[in-house]
Each structure stands twice: as C-alpha cells, then as structure tokens.
Amino acid sequence: xxxxxxxxxxxxxxxxxxxxxxxxxxxxxxxxxxxxxxxxxxxxxxxxxxxxxxxxxxxxxxxxxxxxxxxxxxxxxxxxxxxxxxxxxxxxxxxxxxxxxxxxxxxxxxxxxxxxxxxxxxxxxxxxxxxxxxxxxxxxxxxxxxxxxxxxxxxxxxxxxxxxxxxxxxxxxxxxxxxxxxxxxxxxxxxxxxxxxxxxxxxxxxxxxxxxxxxxxxxx
Length: 220
Hints:
A hairpin with a 7-residue loop joins strand 5 (97-101) and strand 6 (109-112). A four-stranded antiparallel beta sheet has the order 2-8-5-6, with helices on one face. The chain has a three-stranded mixed beta sheet with strand order 4-3-7, with no helix packed on it. A two-stranded antiparallel ribbon has the order 1-9. The chain has helices at 2-43, 135-143, 160-164, 173-213, and strands at 50-53, 58-62, 76-80, 83-88, 97-101, 109-112, 117-118, 122-127, 167-170. It is built from four helices and nine strands. It is an alpha+beta fold. Helix content is 44%, strand content 19%.
C-alpha cells in the first residue's frame, strides 16, 4: 500500500541522511587537520628548520600479493591502491598505518587505524620520526603531489626513489608531537564517525530486503 511505501522510504531516507551527515562531518574534520598542518609546517615553517627529504621521515615498503581466491572475505581489510578491496583472516601490517597507491590509483594516501593487509599495488610506510599515530606523516603525504611522480614504464606507477627524494623542511620533533596530540581529537572523532557509518550502512542493507518483502513491517 502507498502509505506503507512512504513509511519505508522515510525510514531508509533517515538512515541515508544520517550517513551523509557523518560523511560530511568527516570531510570537515580532515580539512581542519589539513589546514592546521599547512599553517604549522608550510606557512609558518622556520628558516632554521633543517632542509631534508621525505626519505628522512619515512620508508616506503612494497605491499604483498594476495590473490582474490585466497582471501577469506572476513577479518582484516585488504588494501589496494584505491582503498579497501576485500577482507582476509590474516594481516601483514599492524595499525595505525598509512598506505599509498603504487599502481592504478596513483598516489592516493589512505590512513588505517587497525591492522591491515596492503597488496602489491601499494606501498605502506614505516616512520623514522617516531611519530605517535602517524598523523604528521599522513598529512605531510597528503600535501605532496604524487601524481606527478609517475614512472616511465608502460603501466603508470609511483616511483619510490623520486617520491623519497622530495625536498621538505624537517620540523623539530616536539613540534611533530604537539601536532599529533592536537589533531588526535579530530581523528578520534573521525574514527567514531566511520564506525557509525559502517553500522548504519549494515542496518540499511539488512533492512531493505526485509522491508520490501514484508518480512519486517513499518507501522503507519
């Protein structure tokens, strides 16, 4: 009946609206942290800060191959160059961590809170800065234009040597730690929002077929 159709649409649209609100809030939180990074480490960079390169701050390590048919479908996120591409019962890197697209979606920077499995189309980073939570490294990498560091091979790829030789100003360690502590508030909220988004999406996707089949009814 039409009234029940409208009631079902109302329930689903309420879930979609909440999911959209959380996505927009996450974009705002990340933009605030990016703005703060640029202010502290680009606009207000001190002349006496050491000249260095990205390789002084991080290592780029190749992800490992994991064929589609081997993945168990549940467990830890499998990370490709565009983001999560599946799940597997084992992980190869402890979170928090950062993955960069090496082949395919070139140069995309992905932050992971939990343990994960980066595949061979990616690099994952190892920090030399002993930076808690890797927040400084994450926002540093997001300011660099990796798309222009393409290798000359037939298949586009991020050239590791070129990426690590990118010139940067190396800020004092106390400045890094202060930034990480300040931004952890933003990232903690972003993490909670992301968990809530996944929960709401699961509820929506579970409810939809049950509502459409009449297995679950909405009181009009």
